[in-house]
Specification:
With 137 residues, this protein is an alpha+beta fold. The protein has one domain: 2-Layer Sandwich (Alpha-D-Glucose-1,6-Bisphosphate, Chain A, domain 4), CATH 3.30.530.20. It is globular.
């Protein structure tokens, strides 16, 4: 599987086809025990996720990254439309980014489109892009 990637300045968009039905793919974003199985860059170990999956609810994701220490980010859910879309604010260091994840039914497959905006600089955007791509892998 490959992803289509588009970065422009402080915005990234990743489109990926997953070989699973849309309700299943949505659950892998909505349930912490499923999300921690795949989320995190390839060097991440001991990924822990706590989440209150509802509009206004929050989440915290912690992971150990080899030779770099612990990385933590938090967020707040702004919109949840099951199984179509999840929108949230992600607090990454001093930056607040906005993330929209949409799930499109393609029969037995699901097209996932993730758009993240509001990065303070190109470096941050590319760092998050790398980690997100590694998560999708």
């Amino acid at each position: 599987m490959t992803s289509d990637v588009n970065t422009t300045g402080k915005r990234l968009q990743i489109t990926r086809i997953l070989h699973a039905p849309r309700p299943m793919v949505f659950r892998f974003w909505a349930e912490p025990e499923k999300l921690q199985r795949w989320s995190g860059c390839k060097e991440a170990t001991n990924c822990q996720i706590q989440m209150d999956f509802r509009v206004g609810g929050s989440f915290t994701q912690k992971m150990q990254i080899a030779d770099k220490g612990e990385f933590t980010f938090t967020g707040i859910y702004d919109e949840i439309v099951e199984p179509e879309r999840i929108s949230y604010r992600a607090f990454i260091g001093p930056a607040t980014t906005r993330v929209l994840v949409e799930f499109f039914d393609e029969g037995e497959q699901t097209r996932v489109v993730l758009i993240q905006t509001g990065f303070p600089d190109d470096f941050s955007c590319h760092t998050v892009l790398q980690g997100t791509m590694e998560s999708f892998e």
